[in-house]
Amino acid sequence: MLLVLCVDLDDDVGRKTGLSTPVVGSEAVREAAVALATVDPEDSDVNVMFQGLSTYEALREEGTEEVEVAVVTGVEGNDVRANRTVGEEVDTTLASLQTGEEVRAIIITDGAQDESVVPVIRSRMPIDGVRRVVVRQAQNLESMYYTIKQVLADPETRGTILVPLGILLLIYPLVVIAGIFDVAGAVVLGLLSALVGLYSLFRGLGLEDSIDTTVDRLRNGLYAGRATLITYIVAFALIIVGGVQGVSMVETVDSTTGPSLEIVTAGAAFVHGAIQWFAAAGITSSLGQVTDEYLADRFRWRYLNAPFYVVAIGIVLYGLSGFFLPSVDGIVTLSLPDLALALTIGTLMGVLSTLTFAVAESRYPSQVEAT
């Protein structure tokens, strides 16, 4: 059985005509539509009920199955109560239908707001379709109004749209104020544009979630007393110092060899000047991580390989970069035997550390491995 269900979420039918709802049956719906049209000809729910009657007659003419039409209403001013009331009236309507067949609904509404009750109806019966009735000269006007209303009511969406819009609207008055105080308007315009750009970039890439996660981790690490919180900061500082030292080494080599500095030589100079600091950063961060793993009872002997690997890699890169550096004043270059020695030491350190801690794991298993 098909039920053509006309939805009036704000109960215009009951409030304006005094009729009791739900209204079931074609004659009763027609009388209700005429009564509402008499009281308020501009009410869009009049169109909904007449559309429901038109759909009812068309389905009856097909004659494929039994059809009925009904009007259900909610309450004014409260969407939650209105949806609940519509659900109750749908239950009353279904109980009044004298049929043993499964009832399916075709919903007739006058806009997006009334369609918010669709899940309530779907929980009670299958829905074959939803028809929105809008006056032609005002097509999509109510839907647009309801969409804007919903957007402004949502805190997340409101912040996404209104914050950039507010910044854009502030550009002109702030530039005028900046001119009054002899501040370059271009500077203010650039700052505001940068704010909008950064905000849009963060929202578009979803970086706000990553930032929130990072802040939570830092806060938890601070309260939990994690060593990595300090060692990572120290490692970051060492990396910055190493980068400065690497650039300084490149400038030193460039000043002595002339403007035609090859990219291989420049890379070797940068690595040679920075690798000690980079290695120190790697050792610091790895020791902090090992400390936290030990305190959390997750320690394994193999974790101690990390600082030795860092030292081994540092020795190898220091030897390679020193070998490719030109012989200039103020820079210690390495010969081929020095390079061979550095490669040997780095290899032996990596292999011996791996073997040492593998043996330690096999003979003295940690608590994690024992479980």
TrEMBL record:
Keywords: Membrane, Transmembrane, Transmembrane helix. It comes from the Archaea. InterPro entries: DUF373. The chain crosses the membrane at residues 159-177, 183-202, 223-243, 263-287, 308-327, 339-360. The keyword Membrane applies. PANTHER family: DUF373 FAMILY PROTEIN, HYPOTHETICAL MEMBRANE PROTEIN, CONSERVED, DUF373 FAMILY. This is Putative membrane protein.
